[in-house]
Amino acid sequence: MRSTSGQLSRLTTDFRDQLPVWSRDGKRIAFLRRGSNVDRCALLVINADGSDVHQVGNVETDCFSRVSWGPRDRKIAFGGVRAQGSTGLWIVNANGSGLHRLRAGRGATEGIHPAWSPNGRWIAFGWTGRSPHPWGRLAAVRPDGSGYHVLVKPRARHDEDEITYAAWSRDGKRLAYVRVEHRPGHAGSTLEVADSLGQHRRALAHLAYNPGGQGAPSWSPNGRSLVYWRTCGQSTCVSTIPARGGKPHVLLRGEYLQPYWGPAGS
User: Fold this and answer.
1) I want to staple 166 with a disulfide (CB 3.0 to 4.6 A). Which of 61, 100, 124, 171 is the partner?
2) How far is CA 209 from CA 47, 80, 136, 142, 196, in A?
3) In terms of Cα–Cα distance, which of 46, 61, 58 is closest to 13?
4) Does the predicted model carry a pTM greater than 0.70?
5) Smallest Cα–Cα separation from 235: which of 266, 259, 208, 217?
6) Which residues, in sequence order, are bridge partners of residue 47?
7) What architecture is the 17-215 domain classified under in CATH?
8) Cβ partners under 8 Å of residue 26, min gap 6
9) pLDDT tens for residues 224-264?
């Protein structure tokens, strides 16, 4: 964790921990921890001071999807592949009870990187659905499973676009996400911002195709900046960029990190 003063502090010492996400009140962090099977991760929660690390019920999923806290930090949404190959978008109570699948999927990218809107009315996520398109569009659904609709589609004639890593601004008026183009000879990624309906889209930063997962944006509390990770030469770095566009500013270099901006700016 990096505080507003710039000081770094370590909350866990397990190298298997990844994809941290702050609770809305800033008191807890949810994250994934790889098990003995490197393709399976447990969903864990830790207090902001590093105490009380525990698994959320017996929840396990694949290790490729960020999770998201719901209203009043009572529920957690997550996506991807669970045991026995069951895929989709899932919700579980923060105490580990009430696990259920909100939408059933058919591929590994179903429900990936869900993002619960600040008002709690929508969950945005990557989804393939019934499309022959092999990757994902950005979709949204209500927490009761109703109201499914697509926010951002692959571009016309770009059947190998993937839209992923949705992130709501704190006021719920904007969405950041990563568009990955897998087309041979044109492969690359773009960090983009749109309004809450997926319209008025614009690119903020162009990213290399590898390593995967670059971008993974998170909004500052005041909505003026985004933090994300990217390659910097032969290494990786964590950078911020103005939400209206501009030059990236490097915060950290030399580590593979997946940043998430805390409610108080940490």
Assistant:
1) 124
2) 34, 22, 16, 32, 26
3) 46
4) yes
5) 208
6) 28
7) 6 Propeller (2.120)
8) 48, 262, 263, 264, 266
9) 999 999 998 888 999 999 999 999 999 988 766 788 998 86
Intra-chain end-to-end CA distance of the chain, in Å? 7
Report the alpha-carbon distance of residue 112 to residue 108 in Å, rounded. Answer: 8
The residues pairing with 176 across neighbouring beta strands, listed in sequence order, are 167, 193
Buried b (16+ CB within 10 A) or exposed e, 77-90: bbbbbbeeeebbbb
Please write the tens of the pLDDT for every residue from 4-16.
445 556 666 567 8
Q: Is the CB of residue 167 less than 8 Å from the CB of residue 217?
A: yes
Q: Which amino acid belongs to residue 211? A: P
DSSP 16-77: TEEEEEE-TTSSEEEEEEE-SSTT-EEEEEEETTS---EEEEEEEE-SS---EE-GGG-EEE
CA dist., res. 263 & res. 22, Å (int):
7
Helix (H, G, I), strand (E, B) or coil at 238: strand
Q: From its phi and psi, is residue 186 left (phi > 0), alpha (psi between -120 and 50) or beta?
A: alpha
Domain boundaries defined on the chain = 17-215
Tell me the residue type at 80.
G
